[in-house]
Amino acid sequence: MTPLILIPGLACTAEMFAPQVAALSPHRPVRIASTREGDSMARMADAILHDAPPRFALGGISMGGYIAFEIMRQAPDRVERLALLDTTARPDAPEQTAQRQTLIARAEDGQLETIMREIAPRLLHPLHKGDQTLIDVQVRMGLDVGAAGFVRQQRAIIGRADSRPDLPGLHVPTLILVGDRDPLTPPIRAREMADALPNAQLVIVPDCGHASTLEQPAVVNAALLDWLNA
């Protein structure tokens, strides 16, 4: 059975995929990639490929999707199928880069926990903004990644490539999944990818923000199982 490699997002750890590991592990080997190596998308992708089996299914959420695009550039023949969750093929807009630079400065000034507590509820669907468990897990992951890791990842995101030109050449079965109220990578960005990919399925998750794997794990698990078994 082809293993599944899942790549977490910015300031996230394996805990981002805990519900998916529990649901999918009985069906195939599941690995959570480390994003702690490298200071660019290319270097993070290279580190993941170094530890990966010869052939695998690949999924990434948010920043993990950016790394997945880089893996597809470096080693497309090793990826059996691709899942892109709550992500975009576009590079940062100038205003996004400016926001990231502000966050970098604050993190370097010792404000990471404050940043995480500010950001966490904003990522969630309005129904979930008061869910302290969801907020706490995001803060916990961010603190585990640490300020240096947060800064390195933000800089890698700022420097990422525009992946839109690559989409028509990605022929592997691809799942595009997004929360219906994702504030960072909204459904319009998911549709843009799905329309450009030759072999894509689009799933829009109801009552869900940017943290789909934690906000609506049952829906995400079902979509991933369907994609893996297709």
Short key terms for the protein model shown above:
single chain; 230 residues; alpha/beta; Rossmann fold; 9 helices
Would you mind describing this structure in some detail?
The protein is α/β, with parallel strands linked by helices. It has one domain: 3-Layer(aba) Sandwich (Rossmann fold). Helix content is 48%, strand content 14%. It contains 9 helices and 6 strands, in the order βαβαβαβαααβαβαα. Strands 2-1-3-4-5-6 form a 6-stranded parallel sheet, with helices on both faces. The protein is globular, with a radius of gyration of 16 Å. The model has no long low-confidence stretch (mean pLDDT 98).
Write the layout of secondary structure elements.
Blueprint: E1 4-7, H1 18-24, E2 30-32, H2 41-51, E3 56-61, H3 63-74, E4 79-85, H4 94-108, H5 112-122, H6 132-158, E5 174-179, H7 187-196, E6 200-205, H8 212-215, H9 217-229
Parallel strand pairs: 1-2, 1-3, 3-4, 4-5, 5-6
- Percent strand equals 5-15%
* Average pLDDT for all residues: 98
Regions with little confidence, pLDDT below 50 for 5+ residues: none
SSE arrangement, N to C:
EHEHEHEHHHEHEHH
What fold name goes in the CATH topology slot?
Answer: Rossmann fold
How far apart lie the N and C ends? 14 Å
CATH superfamily: Alpha/Beta hydrolase fold, catalytic domain
Main sheet: strands, sense, barrel? 6 strands, parallel
How are strands sequenced across the largest beta sheet? 2-1-3-4-5-6
Shape: globular
Oligomer: single chain
Structural class: alpha/beta
Name the helicity range.
Answer: 40-55%
CATH class: Alpha Beta
